[in-house]
Design goal:
The complex is a heterodimer. By secondary structure, chain A is an alpha/beta fold. Chain A contains eight helices and ten strands. Chain A has two domains: about 5-75 and about 155-265, Rossmann fold (3-Layer(aba) Sandwich); about 90-150, no CATH class. Chain B has one domain (about 35-245): MetI-like (MetI-like fold). In chain B, helix 4 packs parallel to helix 7, helix 8 packs across helix 9 (about 160-195) and helix 10 runs antiparallel to helix 11 (about 215-240). Classes of the chains: A alpha/beta, B mainly alpha. The structure holds adenosine-5'-triphosphate (ATP) and magnesium ion.
Chain lengths: ~260, ~250
């Protein structure tokens, strides 16, 4: 196995006095690996990424980035948030340029680089538009360009495509795979869609139902690359993997659902 | 355009009603004035140029109160918004200052700063400050935490966060408070003049009241209203210029 980019070591996280969201979670991502995480809603997937980003500190345990314990913001990671995090008062170009400017690039150069990245995600024509003038899919692409422009070694992506329609979604999945294959970096990709996870990932990790969630299953996806996300779903190998992982995931989803129903009654 | 004509028509109708009621003795002109006489006063004031000196003073007081009040309000709002501990300490004092009817400070300011411009500006500042302060404070506290998290991930230093996230976020609140603030600055100036001064539109009104010249009082009110509308329009212009990123703003259609 190649170098470990990111590792959660016995990580426990509780918000205040509540039952811990994550309990003794162990997980590692290799430097060139595309890792997908699936799990029932509310189990703590976003929390897992916030910990890796350094936005949250673990209550117990440790996050390691390329072998060094993480304290504060993870400077080697880029984060594509689940929610909309573009600055509403900056147009698409300036949003992408923002990170470059924070890193000390002169404005003119940052803008030129931003335009390049907008081109790469197919948004050259929308550079002057403000976030409220962009569709949900366009906003996600701007956010993607914003993250990629800084060339982070670790990409944290939280359900980036879940708000998109099916066509745009498989387009963007293919785009992401193309960008990633050109320069392989560690990716942690969260999704609630198991098919998406299998189509994209080198490995799929299943989280248990919360509270006290942790990874409970790990599946190596040995489907050949390059992949076309739409076509690969038809292959028998894909269907087998899907059946196998779904066995486990279904149980967790049902547990989470039952807990939810119980809590409501 | 249709709307404009309808509005002009409504204004004329109201003037005509006023004219009719006072002309036929249904309302005593001594208390209600007469529109044509109010017009005459306005023509006299503007014709002789006398009004401009007074208006100039009032607008100068308004502008100074507005600008200084905003500067103080924005800086304290940012500071307290970003330092929760100081905010917790000062909270009851701020609430008390805000709850106090600040217009009663006018006589105190008159004894401190004299009857000139300074006491009016001081009164205007106390009125403007709190409006802007509370909006900025709220604006900073209500910044979307996701925006902050994203900016931090993109490498923003604490200073860059203030400049690129907190500040612009607070600005949209500042602008929504400016309409109120400009009115407050104006109120401060006029009330200050009214309570004791030797020049300004508030002084003119006070003089007119002293000699029971109700028409001149109305003329003063007309002047004040027109100015307040003009100031408000200027704020709207600035808003369109600076908040063009906002959904539904006029400048947004590129
Ligand atoms: N700031 C917070 N304070 C208290 N509880 C929180 C906070 N953030 C998240 N939680 C709780 O932690 C749990 C996990 O949240 P998280 O957002 O990580 O779930 P998720 O797996 O990403 O869900 P989804 O699939 O819906 O995005 C939830 O029960 C949530 O209520
Ligand atoms: Mg989530």
């Amino acid at each position: 196995m190649s170098e470990i980019a990111l590792q959660w070591k016995g990580v426990t996280l509780a918000f205040g006095e509540a039952a811990p969201v994550l309990q003794a979670a162990n997980l590692r991502v290799a430097a060139h690996e595309f890792l997908c995480i699936v799990g029932p809603t509310g189990c703590g997937k976003s929390t897992l990424l916030n910990l890796a980003a350094g936005l949250l500190a673990p209550s117990a345990g440790l996050i390691e980035v390329f072998g060094k314990p993480l304290a504060g913001i993870n400077r080697r990671a880029g984060y594509l948030f689940q929610g909309d995090a573009l600055l509403p008062w900056r147009n698409a170009r300036e949003n992408v340029a923002a990170g470059l400017i924070f890193h000390g690039r002169p404005r003119a150069i940052a803008r030129a680089e931003a335009d390049e990245w907008l081109g790469r995600v197919g948004l050259s024509a929308a550079a002057e538009r403000y976030p409220h003038q962009l569709s949900g899919g366009m906003k996600k692409r701007v956010a993607l360009a914003q993250m990629l422009a800084l060339k982070p070694e670790i990409l944290l992506m939280d359900e980036p495509f879940s708000a998109l329609d099916v066509q745009t979604r498989s387009l963007m999945e293919n785009e992401l795979l193309a960008l990633w294959s050109a320069k392989r970096r560690a990716v942690v990709f969260i999704t609630h869609d198991l098919e998406e996870a299998i189509a994209l990932g080198d490995r799929v990790v299943v989280m248990s139902a919360g509270p006290a969630s942790r990874p409970v299953g790990e599946f190596v996806i040995d489907l050949p690359r390059p992949r076309d996300v739409a076509e690969i779903r038809m292959t028998p190998a894909f269907v087998d993997l899907h059946r196998e992982i779904w066995q486990l995931l279904k149980g967790e989803v049902q547990k989470a659902y039952a807990a939810g129903v119980e809590a409501r009654t | 355009m249709k709307l404009f004509i309808a509005r002009a028509g409504l204004l004329l109708a109201l003037l005509a009603l006023w004219y009719g009621l006072t002309e036929h003795g249904l309302l005593p002109p001594f208390f209600f004035g007469r529109p044509q006489l109010v017009g005459e006063v306005l023509v006299r004031w503007i014709g002789s140029g006398m009004i401009f000196r007074h208006l100039g003073v009032t607008l100068l007081e308004t502008t100074l109160a507005f600008v200084i009040g905003i500067a103080l309000g924005v800086s304290s709002g940012l500071w307290l918004g970003l330092s929760p501990r100081v905010a917790a300490l000062l909270d009851p004092f701020i609430k008390a200052c805000n709850a106090m009817p600040r217009v009663v400070l006018a006589p105190i300011f008159a004894t401190w700063f004299g009857l000139g411009i300074a006491s009016k500006v001081a009164l205007g500042i106390t009125l403007v400050f709190f409006v802007v302060f509370f909006n900025v404070y709220q604006g900073v506290k209500d910044v979307n935490p996701l925006l902050v998290a994203n900016a931090r991930m993109l490498g923003a230093t604490p200073r860059a966060l203030v400049r690129h996230v907190y500040w612009p976020s607070a600005m949209s609140w500042v602008f929504s408070s400016l309409h109120t603030a400009v009115g407050m600055a104006f109120v401060g100036a006029v009330v200050g003049e009214y309570l004791g001064s030797a020049q300004g539109v508030g002084y003119l009104i006070l003089q007119a009241e002293g000699s029971f010249d109700i028409n001149a009082v109305f003329a003063g009110i007309v002047i004040l209203t027109v100015c307040a509308l003009a100031l408000d329009a200027m704020v709207t212009l600035a808003e369109q210029r600076f908040l063009k990123w906002r959904p539904g703003s006029a400048g947004a259609n590129t």
